Amino acid sequence: MKLAVLVLVLASSGLAESRQAKPADEAACPDAVSSTGKYENYSYGFTVVIPKNVKGFWNSAMCVSRADGCTCMSDHGRIIPLSAEPYEPERHIEVYAGYAADFDDPTVQQEVDKHVDWVRERSRENSVTVVSQSNLLLGGLKARRAVVRYFDKKLNAWMIEDTVEALRRRDIEYSVYLRTREEAYKQDVSVFDSVVRSFRLRKLE
Q1: pTM surpassing 0.85?
Q2: What is the CATH number of the domain that holds 38?
């Protein structure tokens, strides 16, 4: 399951050379460079626009820097903090793509349910409420959106997670989700909606 951490995110894909566009600082690996504006993901075939006044950060395992360049895990997406530095890890948008390996023949609803189950693992007993679920299109793909309210045991606070899940060819999962404190949700959801609207598919390589 996805776990958003600004410095390190677990990734299940095999080791491969990063296909990221060369950063402005040629000496820096992709995991050391923030993204602004349009972000293109070559590993899983999509683009999103990172909103103004925020930045996107590497959302995969750390790269290994060598004299001849960087070796990185497949690029799974971006984490977009929504607070001022030092960033609060519990208040961010995550854009994630990976292979849907948890089910033999996955459905979008199963991916949504999996995310809700992940929320339950971190919540106080009987505190999870699925506020709403709805259908939408994510980059032309049939998608499902769920808003979940819960009490986070570690943070000792009421939280909202707003997630959009989609599948491509039934083997690639796209997940765009917002995790934030309940009192910040109305402010943060507008930024989240702009990321969801900007999502586009590109050719898989």
Answers
A1: no
A2: 3.40.1000.10
